Amino acid sequence: MADTFAKYHCNYCEEDVNGLRVRCLECDDFDLCLQCFACGAEIGKHRSGHAYQFMAGVFQDTGNFSIFPGQGHWTAREEVRLLDAIEQYGYGNWEDIARHIETRTPDEARNKYISSYIDGAIGRASWKPALERLQLPIEHTVPDTGPLSPTLGSSLPSQPPSTEENTILGYMPHRDDFEREWDNDAETTIAPLFIHPVDDEDVDMALKLAQVDMYMRRLRERSRRKRVVRDFQVVPQFFKKEREKAQVPPKKKSKDDKEAVAEKLRTISQFQTASEHNNLINSIVRERELRTRIRELLRYRRNGIRHVEECHEFEVARSRRDRKKENKKKGVSINTSLFCKVML
Q1: What is the fold, at CATH topology level, of the domain defined by 66-145?
Q2: Degrees to nearest 5, angle at CA 56 with 52 and 59
Q3: Does residue 36 contact residue 12 with C-beta atoms inside 8 Å?
Q4: What is the pLDDT of residues 92-141, one digit of tens each?
Q5: Cβ–Cβ under 8 Å, residues 145 and 153
Q6: How far is the C-alpha of 58 from the C-alpha of 3, rounded, in Å?
Q7: Residue 214: per-residue pLDDT
Q8: Full DSSP string of 16-85
Q9: Closest residue by Cα to residue 20 from 86, 71, 91, 77
Q10: What pLDDT score does 133 carry?
């Protein structure tokens, strides 16, 4: 009976604690009031980093107290439910969040989270500043961001501004469409479809939905190809090369090593940016040059050459020997042809 009316006191400020208190789980019989606990009080063997537990008074509920006084009188239980709901349902789903809290409306939940955890002291201390002002988290309830969304290409480079180039491409900048799109006949898949809610059976409905799904896949592929063209700026590079070709007279030449490598790596260019792809090609060409040079140096070493000055003399002697071999082969072939003519 005596424990029922027992009073607890704060071991730091020595004041009586009638309501909620904090008990240290690592120190024996050590309690703190909420004010001293919030200040990080340390005394004796107790440290602010020790594990702790909230202890309620005899006739007090552990969650029925306010953490932020004067802000709508939100209890600790409501604060915890708000944070749990934000983590579970995501920022912006205020209807689900309010149902999870059970005692607040969607508007109250939204205003509370923004005022306390974004614009308040907790938000300023926990959110990393981005430029001059923190922006609100992205709402999960915004309109569709699928392949036909108007925001799909907002962060992508713009198409070439030249009217002449747009005319050649058949590109309409205001609509972000071409006169002839990739897979231009995709719409014919769903053009004759018509849903009859009464006459259609489940099998017919499933087949029509499958055709719609096939159409959406083709639209996504069309959108992906547009995105690749923008990200890698294929169109400006194409017209730039065409202008350079028009200025330079045509020359008959075989593909050099760099062009051959670029031709082989064309299929993987869509997975890299333009600078990354060029760096990869230059690195491979440089590697081949180094391998060729290493083979030459090893050949010099096998022939007993130890100094760079001797390489020129070795190459001159080797070319002389090669010419002698070629002349000897030509002489043998000429003698053979003459002998055959004489015999005939």
Answers
A1: Arc Repressor Mutant, subunit A (1.10.10)
A2: 170
A3: yes
A4: 888 889 988 888 898 988 888 888 887 777 777 666 554 344 444 454 45
A5: no
A6: 9
A7: 87
A8: EE-S-EEEESSSTT-EE-HHHHHTT---TT--TTS-EEEE--TT--TT-SBSSTTSS--BHHHHHHHHHH
A9: 77
A10: 47
Domain boundaries, the chain: 8-55, 66-145, 163-241, 259-304
What's the rounded mean pLDDT across residues 206-211?
84
85: which 2 tokens?
């709901």
Sheet strands side by side (includes 21-24): 31-32, 21-24, 52-55
Lowest mean pLDDT, pick from 179-188, 229-238, 251-260, 295-304: 251-260
Measured between alpha carbons, how far is 61 from 196 in angstroms, rounded to an integer? 59
Confidence (pLDDT) at 64 = 65
Tokens of 245: 């070709």
Distances from the Cα of 229 to the Cα of 32, 232, 237, angstroms? 64, 6, 10
CA-CA-CA-CA dihedral for 55, 57, 2, 46, to nearest 10: 40
Q: Locate tokens 């015999």: which residue? A: 343
pLDDT the model gives residue 63: 57
Question: Which pLDDT score, from 0 to 100, does residue 2 have?
Answer: 39
Token reading at 297: 């140096």
pLDDT band at 59 (very low <50, low <70, confident <90, very high): very low
Per-residue pLDDT reduced to its tens digit, 297-306:
888 888 888 8
Outline where 93-180 has alpha helix (H). 94-101, 106-117, 121-126, 163-169
pLDDT computed for residue 134 by the predictor? 43
The architecture CATH gives domain 8-55: 2-Layer Sandwich (3.30)
Q: How far is residue 310's CA from residue 312's CA, in Å, rounded to a whole number?
A: 6
Q: Is 33 exposed, middle or buried (0-12, 13-18, 19+ CB in 10 A)?
A: buried
Residues found in the chain: 344
Provide the b/e sequence for 63-97 (b: ≥16 CB within 10 Å). Answer: eebeebeeeeebebbbbebbeebbeebebbbbeeb
